[in-house]
Amino acid sequence: MIEMYCKDKDLIEMLRDRRTQEKGFRLLLERYGDKLYWHIRRIVVSREDAEDAMQETSIKIFSKLDSFKGESSLFTWIYTVATNEALQLLRRKNSELQSIDDEEGLGDKLKSTMYAENDVDSDHAEAVFQEALLTLPTQQRLAFNMRYYDELPYEEIAEITGKNVSTLKSNYHFAVEKIKNYIKENAL
Questions:
Q1: Predicted pLDDT of residue 123
Q2: How far apart are CA 49 and CA 40, in angstroms?
Q3: Are 101 and 111 in contact (CB under 8 A)?
């Protein structure tokens, strides 16, 4: 149990040492696995797609540990890997869309997935909120999810997404306004 309290730098050392690599990887997933899964799930919506992206994320993290130079935190690095894998999965699955930011086409597909997989009808307010999120362009949805759900500071979101802080603040602001308007128009 004391291993759960080891610092990231100790965890990184475990991951880089062939003798402790597997144990370190298990600790990494114990520490960050749930957060990563739900971050991915909010991007791809589908449970099956989230599991696939999570598996690809795990493989990439494990195979690319040597590329982690410590310029950002371990959490930021693995979140970046997870975000990229989730977006890549969306691109592959929705290749007929003009772009990943085709908000109407992608949003409609993700909405139908949401309703197919969840019993959202039991909570109308939650369903309307989730629908509102899925109408957002991808970059606004990412900024909103990381700020609202994950409670990440803009500086960390900037490291993960490669966007500048002012762009992220703008994306978040527009996302909040669009969500409010959608809820106002669609709430009973």
A1: 65
A2: 9
A3: no
Here the tokens at position 129 are 């909120």
* Helices first, then strands: H and E counts in the chain: 9, 0
Place of tokens 């696939």: 52
**Distance from C-alpha of 16 to C-alpha of 105, rounded to nearest angstrom:** 42
Looking at the chain, how many residues does it have? Answer: 188
Dihedral sign for Cα atoms in the order 105, 124, 49, 167: positive
Reduced to 3 states, what is the DSSP secondary structure of residue 137? coil
Place of tokens 């990381």: 146
Residue 114, Cα to own-chain centre: how many angstroms? Answer: 16
Secondary structure (3-state) at 125:
helix
Give the CA distances from residue 4 to residues 7, 9, 55, 121, in Å, rounded to whole numbers and listed in that order. Answer: 9, 13, 22, 38
- Residue 49: both structure tokens together: 């797609």
**Residue showing tokens 């085709």:** 102
Tell which wins on pLDDT, 171 or 110.
171
Tokens 């959490």 belong to residue: 75
**Ramachandran sector of residue 91 (left: φ over 0; alpha: ψ -120 to 50; beta: rest):** alpha
pLDDT, one tens digit per residue, over 5-42 is: 568 888 888 888 889 988 988 999 999 999 999 999 99
Q: How far is CA 41 from the centre of its chain?
A: 7
User: How far does CA 175 lie from the centroid of its chain?
Assistant: 16
